[in-house]
# Entry
Amino acid sequence: MSETLNETSALALQMKIIDDPTWQQQRQAHWDEEHQDAYAECWPRTTVKAVKQLFMRGEINRKGLAKFSAGQRIRLYFDHFPIQSREAFEFILGQLEDDEVKKFDQSVKAATFFYALLKTEPDIRYGRFADQSKAQRLAIFDWFWGDKFDLNRRVPCLVGGSSLPMQITAMAVLRHFLSSVSSWMLCAEKHQATPLWLERSDFALSALYLIHDTSFSTAQYEGYDGDEELFQEGLWRLLAGPIKSAANKLPTHIKEMNQIRDKLLARFREIADHKPAFDTLWQHIDKHGVDFEREIKITFTLSDDQLTGWRSLILNDKRPTLVGENDEHECWCSAKALDTKLRRVLKQCNPLLEAAWDNAFANHQARVQFDRRNNSNGSIMLLYIFPKQVEDLDALEVSLIDIVSQLPVSDLSSWQYFGPI
# Structure
């Protein structure tokens, strides 16, 4: 490292792991799989070598990293330092040079100490905080941010030898909080863990008292502030209603999501009682709803034999399109071709189901997507309905569940939730 550590310091003890052969082998595999090609395609060999030194040894070689901007270098330090701990972050912040200190702005703070630290990690091989327990990650959050949002708070350690103010807005805090909860509910089929943000809802909601009344407008935001836009979308979606199922096929984990939403709304209610503009918005949404279309998701599982048969029937023995952060999902066909291909399955199982499918969409226009998804519980099939012109979404959901329930499937569930604005 570019600065000698006290051999008895907490970080020095943590850094001993980098000399462990097993750790080195695993870290090298991580580098080879996730980073080597990505950097080699864009940067010269000396730059790639310097990034790898940081990744493997925690060595900050500014000469080797000189082709990166100051802001990019800060991201590299935080993202690639081999230890992700409070002590490591203090060390990194203390090492920043003048041009980097100037770039330690709201964006970097939010990316590192909101998004990355409290991100719900997908079930992937290499998680940035894989070595940190939930309690450890929350402890880092508490150290950096405190127990409630404070406009006057300063970074809790020296940054390049200087004491710096946080300079982050209440809106940025709430954007990350609401987006985390909203995305979790929007992607309920993933069976993700409860967002860590909910463990720090007291901190996030303390910022809600500082939001200006104009941000509770009943009109859709049309400006260029990403924080404002995502704040409104997340808040409106939560206020507009729970995840529901007209076919009474709501799975247990989604019922638990709705219970968590109810508890969050109770907290919102306490704040709205002291913010008339918030209360007015809430009443407006209760009365008029929101300009979000509800979408239908139907999930089920197939036996190995059925999965093989359906894949062959729908894909004509071609390879599926792989999507997702780690190619974990199979997109079985395009929306345009889906209707014809699904009919093959329906017709093979029961010719009457093909007519029932036609009847279900007789008075509706919708785009349909069919995927095989991997989540924390294994593999599921996802039938995703995006309404265009649907007279009765509840009736469409009930009709589709009636059709799918006659197929050789298990663990059948369905629900409706609001899509994007």
